[in-house]
Automatic annotation (TrEMBL):
It comes from the Bacteria. Pfam families: GGDEF. PANTHER family: DIGUANYLATE CYCLASE DGCT-RELATED (PTHR46663:SF4). This is GGDEF domain-containing protein. Residues 190-324 form the GGDEF domain. InterPro entries: DGC-Regulatory_Protein, GGDEF_dom, HNOB_dom_associated_sf, Nucleotide_cyclase, Rev_trsase/Diguanyl_cyclase. It comes from Parasulfitobacter algicola. CDD domains: GGDEF (cd01949).
Length: 344
């Protein structure tokens, strides 16, 4: 079917994926969209069945059978790329001189648009594909905005969670973060050491040099603790001048002692502040999860605190490792005090 030259622009506009065939199946003309599919170098002059495979109806193996399928839906794919699937319908010429095939991508339009760089200009103005492309574009834009919003919400959630678990003054973890981590370690059965530290003479700094000096000291302590700990360790500020260090995987007691002594030594150095010096030290007490048949967060915190105050009683600037004797001594001391109060 030879399309008159004067009608070619109209065919190209209304049927941009058409092929006109001669009676023996030679391609005489194609719409502009088909020329973008990389079918071959010169599609005109080629035989239709050399370039396309008709998968349905199954009995179409010849050009005569192709023309005989007048009005039936054709399912095709390119011989050089089976992933490019097409649909079409053939209209034989009334004078038995070839015919016209109009093709479309069907549901494969999304892949085709992406693969061949097609735009709305490559389809007929009234083609429903245009509406589909608009919907896809709108959906893509909406999904993109949704992803951006989700990323912003995720970032905001992370920031909010980080703030909820961070001490506002020092930037260390806070008590909530400490409690959460201790619970995780116990639930997962990961052994750990828990060290409780309390500054000595901190009240004197606040009383003599003011709270700004006290805040300066706390930040200095936080910096030293962070410098002396490993990436796997956690440092938390759990009170005014109280800190907890969590050391996972139970480092040897000798290393715990060395770590505590380094902290104590560094904090015995005067801390400069606005032409003056802040004098503090630190007392520490440690307990280890392996000391317990079934570790309990509250009990371990009490025992670390008990060891801490044993260090205070030694004269401060000291470290004590928790033992059962400390608990016995505390019980005996409490009973003696109660007896004295009863006699009084």
């Amino acid at each position: 079917m030879q399309i008159p030259t004067s009608l070619i622009p109209t065919f190209n506009k209304l049927l941009p994926m058409h092929l006109s065939l001669s009676g023996n199946g030679e391609i005489l003309h194609t719409g502009p969209t088909l020329e973008k599919l990389n079918i071959c170098t010169n599609i005109c002059g080629q035989n239709f069945l050399d370039l396309f495979t008709v998968s349905r109806p199954r009995n179409i193996k010849t050009i005569d059978a192709l023309f005989a399928s007048n009005g039936r839906n054709l399912h095709l794919h390119l011989r050089n790329d089976e992933t490019v699937k097409l649909k079409g319908v053939i209209i034989p010429d009334a004078d038995d001189d070839g015919g016209l095939i109009n093709l479309s991508f069907g549901i494969g339009v999304i892949k085709a648009v992406t693969t061949f760089g097609l735009t709305s200009a490559d389809f007929a103005p009234n083609d429903l594909t245009i509406e589909m492309l608009y919907l896809i574009e709108a959906k893509s834009a909406a999904m993109d905005e949704s992803r951006k919003l989700n990323r912003r919400l995720q970032s905001a959630r992370i920031v909010a969670e980080e703030k909820a678990f961070t001490d506002g003054l020092t930037g260390l973890k806070n008590r909530r973060a400490m409690d959460d981590l201790l619970k995780q370690l116990i639930d997962k059965g990961i052994p750990f050491a828990l060290m409780h530290l309390d500054l000595d003479y901190f009240k004197a700094v606040n009383d003599t040099l003011g709270h700004a000096a006290g805040d300066h000291v706390l930040n200095r302590v936080a910096k030293i603790l962070s410098e002396e700990t490993r990436d796997s360790d956690t440092v938390a500020r759990v009170g005014g001048d109280e800190f907890v260090v969590i050391l996972p995987k139970n480092p040897p007691i000798e290393k715990i002692e060395l770590f505590a002594n380094r902290i104590i030594k560094r904090l015995q150095q005067p801390i400069p502040f606005k032409g003056d010096f802040c004098h503090v030290s630190v007392s520490a007490g440690t307990t280890i999860s392996n000391f317990y048949t079934k570790p309990d967060v509250d009990q371990m915190l009490l025992d670390a605190d008990l060891a801490l105050y044993a260090s205070k009683h030694k004269g401060r600037a000291a470290h004590t490792l928790y033992t059962g004797d400390l608990r016995k001594n505390e019980t005996a001391g409490s009973e003696t005090e109660a007896s004295h109060q009863k006699i009084a």
